[in-house]
User: What shape does this take?
Amino acid sequence: MKHFLLESTYLVATEQLLSVRPAHRSYMQVGIDHGLLLLVGPQASGVGGLILARADSQATVEEFFASDPYVREGFARYRFVEFTPVLHAPLLADWVGPA
Assistant: This one.
């Protein structure tokens, strides 16, 4: 499996995000439930969010995020960074694999 850090950047004011936030969070939960996403949350600065994901390819991750309500509405864009975890806490062994 390949691992990715995603950074979203909000393209609209927070007030506009609120109208789609419940649908966005429900969609992110689908990714968690299917083992695609590990962590999802907004940046403390409020300018976007951060996500840890894993998949067989970046194309798979990009395909999933193309249907994110924030993207469909033009409220956010994502930057995808593939990385190789070389160290991790033992509690992540099932998600990451052997260290």
